[in-house]
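Lab notebook, bench 4. We co-purified these components, and the gel suggests they stay together. Before we commit to crystallization screens, I want a quick structural picture of the whole thing.
Request: model the full complex, all chains together.
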Amino acid sequence: MEKLNFNFNKRVERVKDYLSTKNSIFINEYRDDKTIFSRLMYIYEDTLININILSYDENSLTIRYIYNDYENNNNHLDSPSLEFSVQEIPAKMVHFERIMKKSFNFFIKMLKLYKDKYIR
Amino acid sequence: MALKYDFKEKVKELKEFLQMRGINITEEINNIEVVEGYDNCSCHLTCEYKNKIIEIMLTNCSNDTLSIFYNYWHSSNNNNFRMSPVVSFSIMDLSSEKVMFGYIINKSFYTFIEMLNIYLKNYKEIEDGEVKFQF
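Here is the predicted assembly.
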């Protein structure tokens, strides 16, 4: 395990705390401590989304929000997927929390746009 | 397994679509090879859309479908920015049939551009040399 200058688990818990306030249902978590990776699966307003959190370096993290059409049983043959990620987020909790929240809300805007414009 | 369509022809159709909409292609990297009996094709286009650099990647998926990936890397557009937000939209299983290919390319491209516009609209630049990441 890479030596980090921050507590990775606390950042993951902070994401979970935030999602618990956003009308979302926690499904499961896959954790790999060797590579310092956490994948959280949620239902957000009837939509299955994945949130991947991983270390970028010893002082920063990357967060990825992902929607895969095929995971949502929508049966669109072309299988669209959308993702918003922010790399190299400073690990300092106040920065991490602010960017995590803003990036989540932006991802939700992307998702709504996709549902309005792309799904036929 | 050999592809049932001409990958180079699909690249040509994609480039024509982009050029007809005034999108400048600044770099093109093609890779067409056979790995362990399977065709492995990709085309990576670096484009300029309204002074923003976007990356478009076309690859084969199955022997009669393709995948297309649209990406906007903030770091490619602003070297002074430490963090790198990335807006991505992809279609994994795109029909190679010409009409459907053109239809999905058109629809997916404009969906991606609308996502990008929301990002750019909400993003605020760095103020007084201090990094303020807001979107």
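The longest helix of chain B spans residues 98-122. Worth comparing against the SEC data before the next meeting. The interface with chain A takes residues 82-95, 104, 107-108, 110-111, 114-115, 118-119, 122, 133-135 of chain B (CB under 8 Å).
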